[in-house]
């Protein structure tokens, strides 16, 4: 008991280590694959830094005009038109300016403040004059536009302080080398020492043959975006990262290193756990997971189709989740559609627990499915309980004569339709017609169905009484329909029950006789041995008497030994626990050898033997020693139980690819009518049991022939006793 408990504990330990190890491996490969087997340059964090650098490069270097350059930029007719009509046409702008100062001047005049009135009028006049000049002179407008552009770009340049700081930080990692395709001017942060003009070893490089320097500034001001667009040129060149670049200064590099270390640690732990589980399983010869018996029993009741569907669906969902985890190469949080975002710690442990549950269920399902497919008995039971098989059985039984299921289905459908018709007629206010349908159709049909159901119920109740051991009664056969056939079948079953009971009584009687015969046949020689042993102990026994007593004891001991050996052999034959060593044997030669053993006894007997065998060999595939014993038993019985002065016929012939050996003799004892009882253990032709036989010869002989797949048949016609043995020709 302790060993069994210990083995279960070890199996649970192996299962736990294997499941946890596989879960760690799967988690490491799904969540940390890109960290363990990829480079930092392939991570989202690095690419985000690269795209930021490229944006800052275009914004601050490739497309960053100075004020002097701004004033040289082209001013188009559309720019002039936009400037002039930015606040409306001439009349509208003049009206706006007059309206702007009207109230202020009027209020100053009311206050009799001439200086204020003079000032506002002067300002108003200046603005009106400027507006009019804008509509009169293109040159004036162009100058205004350029001044405005210079001012806005000044403000814009000052607003880029933070971007410039980020760019300067990224230039410690990223190098750029571009040439203006129009002017040939070079923009680079590559020093000569870094390899200008020579090849630099890199682990990241992007080449550009034609890239526009224009980048949307993010500023809503149209003037700034217009300037950036006008000043943008096309460049060609490259952005690269040298091998010795300080990648640790980039955002996410520490997370990458942490992910790589974590992934390899989890991978190593998983491999150690799996290796430990395999080592222990080999040492303890444990080849399967620790069984969860209640779950296994519940799972075994599920049809095979549902098991396979559930396994496939779970595997697909599991793989999809792993692919989703693999695509999220960051440690801040994990996002799942319905659940939403989960923090790193919560996400880490939630995913790990989910993987453990998935691996456990999938492994157990895989083991149970493999066990089912490997075991023919379980495979057959599983197939019989499958949905496909059960559906086929349902349809087969549905259409099986006498069509009980079909009739019940038709009866239920008919009752339903009649009720539906009656309800429909009632809804249509046809109550009289509805009553006619119910009284003359539905109710008689229902009475007929209930009557048949009551008859069926009576048959079932009587069957229960018979099954419980009650009195056997004949079931009344009513008609030739379903119930009539059922009653006839039940009557046939009762006849079988009677036969079984009679066979059981006969078996009990023969068992009692067996015990009696065994006791008698074993006690007789044992009593003689004890008696003569006591006589030998007396001192007045002569040497001649002592030798006679010892001879009797020896003969009785051999008799007792043979009885015990025959009983042991008969028991082994009956249980099938005997091994046959079959070879190709000539049945003629085997019979000749058996007859030769009894040659002297046959000469001394008053029997006339007639032996007839074919001239050619009769090959059979048998255990020669066991079949010789059959012949030995039959010939010995003939010598012991044949009537003196009669003939004995022993023949061998070939019929229909079978070798038939026949033994015929006339018995000296009356055997009765029941030939089958001669096969029972300790059943002897000599009912008074004065002969030397054990009563096991025929039983052993029949068992040997049965084990060879042959036929052992007895026939009794008055005193003529006939044994026929049939064996297939080799």
UniProtKB/TrEMBL annotation:
Keywords: ATP-binding, Cell membrane, Coiled coil, Kinase, Membrane, Nucleotide-binding, Phosphoprotein, Transferase, Transmembrane, Transmembrane helix, Two-component regulatory system
Coiled coil ranges: 142-173
Nucleotide-binding among keywords: yes
Enzyme class, first EC level, given as a word: transferase
Gene3D superfamilies per the UniProt record, alphabetical: 1.10.287.130, Histidine kinase-like ATPase, C-terminal domain
Superkingdom field: Bacteria
Locations listed in the record: Cell membrane
Protein name from the UniProt record: histidine kinase
